[in-house]
Design brief:
Helix content: 10-25%
Number of helices: 1
Radius of gyration: 15 Å
Strand content: 35-45%
Length: about 140
């Protein structure tokens, strides 16, 4: 429950901070998501949005929303994923649960493109998990 409340607060802050940017561009945008969908980012060109869907069992799945066609795509339905940033082409940055070699599944920084998650290369050392929060346009 604390995880969900923290996520809601962070997303509310992001939305409030990001809103003046759309006003400066001369456009006011009102986005309404379905219940349990939390918006995290909007692409610089305004065509895409992404965020997380949290189901009633507190499982988190990233989603990508095409604001032109109004199509919402869950980026996984079995394994945990989060979508934190999105490019003008709809490439999502975030994290996903993946098995690496013979190790147990773990949450790794990744990007979603061409219908699947791709793990980002991790720096050398003891870092084994992480999140990609942003992507270039």
């Amino acid at each position: 429950m604390i995880k969900r409340q923290t996520l809601r607060i962070l997303l509310a802050i992001l939305f409030v901070v990001g809103t003046p940017l759309t006003m400066l561009a001369g456009k006011n945008i009102v986005l309404k998501t379905q219940e349990e969908y939390y918006l995290a980012s909007i692409s610089p060109n305004g065509e895409w949005a992404c965020g997380m869907y949290i189901d009633y069992s507190d499982n988190t799945f990233g989603f990508r929303w095409n604001l032109i066609t109004d199509k919402v795509e869950l980026l996984s339905t079995i394994d945990h994923s989060e979508a934190w940033g999105i490019s003008n082409e709809g490439v999502v940055a975030g994290n996903a649960t993946m098995s690496i070699g013979d190790r147990a599944p773990q949450t790794v920084p990744a990007y979603y493109k061409d219908g699947k998650w791709h793990m980002l290369e991790m720096p050398e050392g003891n870092i084994s998990e992480g999140i990609a929060y942003a992507i270039t346009p």
